[in-house]
Amino acid sequence: MTIKTTHSVSSFGVSADDSKRDEYAVKVSPTVPKSVADMWESLAPELRQALIASELKGDSNGLLKQRDVSGSSTPTVMSRSSSNSFFEQNSSLGSSKEGNGFDVKHEKCPVSGADVTLTPVERAPKNVFAFTKTHLTEKSEVIKTPAATVTTTTKVVSTSRGWRNIFSLPISYDVNMVAHGTLLDPMNSQMLDATGVHPEGHNTRFAVVDAEVEKLYGSKIQEYFKAQGLELTTCVIDGGEADKRQKAVDTILDDLCAYKLRRREPFLAIGGGCVLDIAGMAACLYRRGVPFVRVPTTLLAIVDASVGVKNGIDYSCCVTDEMYKNRVGSFYAPSACLLDPAFIASQDQRNVSNGCGEILKLALVRSSDLFELLEAHGKVLVETRFEDETLKQSGVSSRIIDLSIQIMLEELGPNLWEAKLDRCVDYGHTFSKLLEMVDGADIMHGEAVNVDGFFCVVMSYLRGYIDMDTVNRIFNCMKALNLPTNSAHLQEELAWQSCKDAIEHRHGEQRIPLITEIGESICVSDITEEELARAVEMMAQFDH
Predict the structure, then answer these.
(1) Which of 38, 253, 268, 484 is the most exposed place for a label (fewest CB within 10 A)?
(2) % of residues, the chain, pLDDT over 70
(3) Which of 108, 98, 106, 89 is nearest to 50 (CA)?
(4) Rounded Cα–Cα distance for residues 438 and 503 (Å)
(5) In 10 A of CB 62, how many CB atoms?
């Protein structure tokens, strides 16, 4: 013998506060037969909600009346109602438009599968919506006995309410290529214009300046603003990776308070990538967000840190007693970026090579054209710090920088807040993080990215994605750019820990980019310890 029974449960106003307010839990007489339950489920969600609200409204004591349903032998169930008048009003949706003419929207929750009804609020109909969510869950239990098999199906209809606030944050910022060597020329108004329009008599400006930049260009920066009849207040901070800490952010915040920066007054951030990250963090925090202008002065900052919207600092955790790279930060866009490639000439060759590490990364995952330019001209560009007259006149120097910036913007622009975590621009940023954080390690960011990048090239070869000719071609290009291709610290333990950190950072999966050919890549999440060990072993076979 087979017996089937059905339980149906309804619950309303499921918030914790509602349950505290309700001082009753009422028994409903034995539940309806399956045919009636099926009919109820076939009704449109808004109609079911309207019927529920009508029933609640009609009972002045807030108690549901008991009704007998003949022929049912299932146990009694509990039902709870909310007497909140707002819920009653917003549950009565008889059509797709409210009385005020606003469209009612219907959708299905992608997480729970609940039917959601969104009703615009009159004073803010484009941004604020009162919602009701109706969720049906069904559970079946089969109990076998010697006499019969009993199948019990329990259906629970739950309804909740609340508000949804929708606001699309407008993000727009210009990345300006400044004519070579003209940014600090008083005849060029671009930097002045970027600091905004101010009331008459407001004759001061504020800038965060890299300590190295202050030594080289401090007087020229001051002269630029003096020529405009303005007084410049500067906050000078060190721009090394070891200085990328909360203390540096606090230094800027202190100086902003002393300067009394206005709410809509942009300040300048002039320096390398670390200074831009620190200043962006301070801009995000001060008065909950003030505009700032990025002026990168290194090749690495020009093609990387200045382009996106990420800011951050390294964090020393008191619980784990560890330092975490870029663990604290924000997505906060600059109001503008001013890029003058003439600053590159003030760097030494190692720093220029360091910047080329990020450019080569982009070439490997996105552009064979960019790779070929680096392959043919990279050595000369590094040696002359992008000042070779022939390459400048032919446009090669500017073409490499322009391509790098455009590729970064193409990848970051549609995914500024990194809703999509499979990102080819994360190439070289899985194992490099821990390499940079090794105590006493003498390795710069672009250098660590390149070591990571070649390690991933080796893994691509071991997986059969690329051949040895491609590996050697990439290796030779890296050496021509004077970039390191291996590190004594890149061992199996660090590599595996990097993969575990990637799983944490990239929400449960490794998502490690690997190239399938020069200019093309995929993200993989199945790298094993054994695979890493083989890659480490193969790395040792190259003449680094």
Answers:
(1) 38
(2) 82
(3) 89
(4) 20
(5) 15
State how far Cα 96 lies from the chain centre: 36
DSSP string computed for 211-254: HHHHHHHHHHHHHHHHHTT-EEEEEEE--SGGG-SHHHHHHHHH
Question: Is residue 366 within 8 Å of 311, Cβ to Cβ?
Answer: no
Is 294:309 a contact under the CB 8 Å cutoff?
no
Strand-pair category, 204-210 with 267-271: parallel
- In this structure, the strands spanning 128-144 and 149-165 are antiparallel
Under a CB-based contact definition with an 8 Å cutoff, are residues 164 and 188 in contact? no
pTM here? 0.79
Q: What are residue 243's DSSP bridge partners?
A: none
Query: 228-286 pLDDT, tens per residue?
Result: 999 999 999 999 989 999 999 999 999 999 999 999 999 999 999 999 999 999 999 99
Q: Other C-beta atoms within 10 Å of 477: how many?
A: 22
What is the pLDDT at residue 201? 85
- The gap from C-alpha 480 to its chain's centroid, in whole angstroms, comes to 34
Check 310, 325, 361, 433 and give the catalytic one: 310
At 535, list the tokens.
């890659």
Write down the residue that tokens 């001051």 correspond to: 222
| Active-site annotation holds for 310 | yes
Torsion (CA) 463, 465, 467, 472 in degrees, nearest 10:
-90
